[in-house]
Amino acid sequence: MAACVLLAACGRQETPAQQQEQAVVVRTAPVRAAEPAPLVLSGTVRARYESPLAFQVGGRIVARLVDAGATVRAGQTLARLDPKDVLAQLEAAQAAERAAQAQWRLAQNELARTERLAAQRFVGEQALDRARTQLEAARSQLEAAQAQERQARHAMEYTELRAPADGVLMEWSAEPGQVVAAGQPVAMLAQKGEREVEVALPERFGRQPPPRGEAVLPDGSAVPLELREVSGAADPVSRTFRARYRLLTAEPPPLGSVVQVRLPQPPVEGWEVPVGAMDERGAGPRVWRVKQGRLEAVPVEVLAVENATARVRGPLEAGDHVVAFGTHVLREGMRVEERAP
After folding, report:
1. Per CATH, is 55-81+159-190 categorized as 3.30.530.20?
2. Burial class (CB in 10 A: 0-12, 13-18, 19+), 139
3. At a CB cut-off of 8 Å and minimum separation 6, what does 178 contact?
4. Most buried residue, 48, 79, 132, 235, by most Cβ within 10 Å?
5. CB atoms inside a 10 Å sphere around CB 86
6. Per-residue pLDDT tens over the stretch 153-164
7. Which residues, 6 or more positions from 125, have their beta carbon under 8 angstroms from its beta carbon?
């Protein structure tokens, strides 16, 4: 029995070739220069020119002729005020003008009579000067009355709110029956023409906003953007800067659409490696670089970690291959065989 056990043990001895180190198969990934991910924000499609509309006189709204969202033409009537008060003012101005005309004609006749009497030396120069002065005063009163009549006539026209340009009526902020003051905004008109995307930039971009970017439309297509303006101060509540980017396309999305805005970020330092390549077993963070079929540990400093990648600083070069995962079982000088991840 002892002889049989000895023979079996002798049969299990390894050969010299088997005693050599076997290459371990590892998954590797190339080291790449770190590139910042684009800043992704939500933006709203707006018109280049958005005009608040208001009546130029105060009064009670009696009719709203166009609904929000309607396309309107320049000069189209949008709403009306009750014209009774303005009409009364117009009638009073017209009556005042007629009275001033009568006074002016009377002053003309009076001057003519005085001139005839002065020619016959029945009145002196003082009476003639008085008649001329009365005529000048009557003329001034007539001009003032005519100006008031024109003003009242214009006020009558102002009881109708008209579109100043072609565009889309975005919203109403007043209802029929409501009394509004002169100059109080009652509607918003998005004028026809350029379309832009409005975004709220983080505070760090307020001084130097990205000059260009792209908007991803609801259908998935991308449209280039170009910065037009950025607010001079941050919003006191959100601490963001309002920016407007031009949509460089002939077929912009509808007004009010929400689009995804992608803006480039400033360059960053370091190298990009898979998160699984990081090994922090006691000696600090490091990655395992494959060089001539052997592993070598490369100490690194972790700068940032994202979902699938880490940004590190260390003695690496673009194109180096590092083990992508399973680093907890690796050791210095280990022989490996690479496989793509």
Report:
1. no
2. middle
3. 60, 61
4. 79
5. 21
6. 999 999 999 999
7. 118
